[in-house]
Amino acid sequence: MKCIVAGCEAVTAAEFAELALGTPVELWLGVEGETEWERAARLDAARDILSDPEYCDLPDDLVRLAAQMVEDRPELVNVVPLVRPARRGSAGRGVAA
Fold first, then answer.
1. Which residues, including other chains, have CB under 8 Å from residue 79's CB and lie 6 or more apart?
2. Of 55, 51, 53, nearest to 23 (Cα)?
3. Which residues contact 18 (CB under 8 A, 6 or more apart)?
């Protein structure tokens, strides 16, 4: 199956995310071995992008994309469902004597 976003074909998951977000994934996640100066410059660029009205919904879009990825391919992010403890009865709580 081909993944096409905005008329461009995404071959890898990173390309798909970049096309969907309109920015390189590395801008948000960083790269291994980056210096403090490079990290500061990257974060400064990210802040500039987020201040642009065109990208005002980007944080929401990013969360939506991440949630969709976790739902579709949980094995990629090592997600395990949390087991909720059984609810205990509320007998004796909040009851006026």
1. 70
2. 55
3. 10, 24, 25
Find where tokens 């969709």 sit. 68
Going through 7-96 in order, the beta strands assigned E by DSSP cover: 8-10
Residues 28, 58, 46, CA angle at the centre, nearest 5°? 35
pTM: 0.47
Residue appearing with tokens 């006026």: 96
Residue reference for tokens 């309109």:
22
Residue 96 tokens read as 């006026």
Of 29, 23, 17, 24, the residue nearest 54 (C-alpha): 23
Question: Which stretches of the chain score pLDDT less than 70?
Answer: 1-8, 10-11, 76-82, 89-97
- Please report the sign of the dihedral spanned by the C-alpha atoms of residue 4, residue 10, residue 14, residue 18: negative
Stretch (H or E) spanning 3: strand 3-5
Q: How far apart are CA 54 and CA 13, in angstroms?
A: 24
